[in-house]
Amino acid sequence: MRDPMTTTLPTAVRPPVRTARPRHYLMCRPSYFTVDYRINPWMDPAKPTDTALAVLQWERLYALYQELGHTVELIEPVPGLPDMVYAANGATVLDDRVVVARFRHPERAAEAPAYQAWFEQQGYPVVHPAAFTNEGEGDYLVAGRRILAGTGFRTDPAAHAEAARLLGRPVVSLTLVDPRFYHLDTALAVLDDDEIMYYPGAFAPESRRLLAELYPDAILAEESDAEVFGLNAISDGRHVLLPEAAGRLAERLAERGFEPIGVDLSELFKGGGSVKCCTLELRHRDLTLGG
Ligand code: ARG
Q1: Angle at Cα 116 formed by Cα 98 and Cα 179, nearest 5°?
Q2: Tens digits of per-residue pLDDT, 137-178?
Q3: Closest CA to 159 of 130, 116, 128
Q4: Residue whose CA is at the smallest distance from ligand 1 atom 9
Q5: Which Pfam families match (predicted)?
Q6: Is the distance from the beta carbon of residue 138 to the nearest atom of ligand 1 less than 6 Å?
Q7: HEC states along 109-136?
Q8: Are 103 and 74 in contact (CB under 8 A)?
Q9: What pLDDT score does 11 carry?
Q10: Domains in the chain, ordered, with CATH?
Q11: Ligand 1 and 40: CB distance under 6 A
């Protein structure tokens, strides 16, 4: 029998039921985190950082993933590489295929071989060093069948075709124009295969048009939420972990049936990163890999 209530209620008051899919992540403890150089506008070497607090805040995120049923692998931090905590930048992993980052700034260059070695030790069958500058999942976001790829500040536009070839997926190139949002993952987050949220002001006009066309129902973030890195978020299809300061965005997510979870990563924000930057997703085809 049909319940007349369910057929007459406007869809806006009944958000879809969201289901979480267990994920596999790679993280790097911020044991050597500090800000002693400046490669993005958020970093100020004159401002003190508290490494112990960074570790505590990071531990909370690490525990939260596990409480939500996700598996988290760890890569050993390397002394002298303070930004290595931003594991999202180390590589892009899809169907067990790994494209290792090639960093734009010399300060981070040595992270690439560390990530490459980790993937090789774990037995990933295909670990490609990249020919073109790309900062891993900082600029490559997997959204269903496509890869949304950022350029403008870090990743070389020529790297996009390389990623499409090596990962075997179509790539949509997007140009970032606001230096505060220098990586795609600071301006856009994938919530589900074909749902995203983003801050339009971070993108060039043609990229904005493209996003509006591909994702007409996207959540559009306000500048105040983007500025606290609200878009540097991780979704498992249901739970969305994002900086706790992004209050308006959390409300919008809840309206859509997601479960926003605010996280305090104020120390890592001083390096220009938050939740997503600290998290690299390991997308496996071969389920025997890495647990
Ligand atoms: N200090 C780092 C840099 O500027 C922060 C990286 C943040 N990572 C990210 N996925 N957006 O490279």
Answers
A1: 80
A2: 999 999 999 999 999 999 999 999 999 999 999 999 999 999
A3: 130
A4: 277
A5: DDAH_eukar
A6: yes
A7: CCHHHHHHHHHHHCCCCEEEECCCCECH
A8: no
A9: 55
A10: 21-281 (3.75.10.10)
A11: yes
